[in-house]
């Protein structure tokens, strides 16, 4: 991906977080294939922007945890795992954003 800025990285992270919020509202309700595709697409874009193996794994962990939250009949433990994964991803995104230029005009 060309022209990755801190603003674009943070915006893509916000898009993924929005999808996660939708998954959390559906906790325990069963799979939603449209939402799962949306989450996976947002995750792939964020992984490409981060271009680091450990960062890509952090994104994958969040996306998978969000899927589990919807799929399980008892979402309490998956919600806790999702919270941990989200914190880890937020730290990763902040760290990567610090090394990127701000918005390009």
Task: Please provide a written account of the structure.
The chain has 105 residues and is mostly helical. Helices cover 76% and strands 0% of the residues. The protein contains four helices and no strands. α1 packs antiparallel against α2 and α3 runs antiparallel to α4. The longest helix is centred in the last third of the chain and has 23 residues. The radius of gyration is 14 Å and the shape is elongated. The protein starts with 5 loop residues before the first helix and ends in a 7-residue tail after the last helix. The model has no long low-confidence stretch (mean pLDDT 93).
Helix tally equals 4
Share of residues in helices: over 70%
The percentage of residues in β strands lies in under 5%
What is the distance, rounded to the nearest whole angstrom, between the alpha carbons of the first and last residues? 17 Å
Q: Gyration radius, to the nearest Å?
A: 14 Å
Tell me the total number of β-strands.
0
* Shape, per Cα inertia axes: elongated
Task: Please trace the helix and strand order, writing H or E for each element.
Answer: HHHH
Given as residue ranges, the uncertain stretches (5+ residues, pLDDT < 50) are: none
Major sheet size, sense and barrel closure: none
**What's the overall average pLDDT, rounded?**
93
Q: What structural category characterises the helix and strand content?
A: mainly alpha
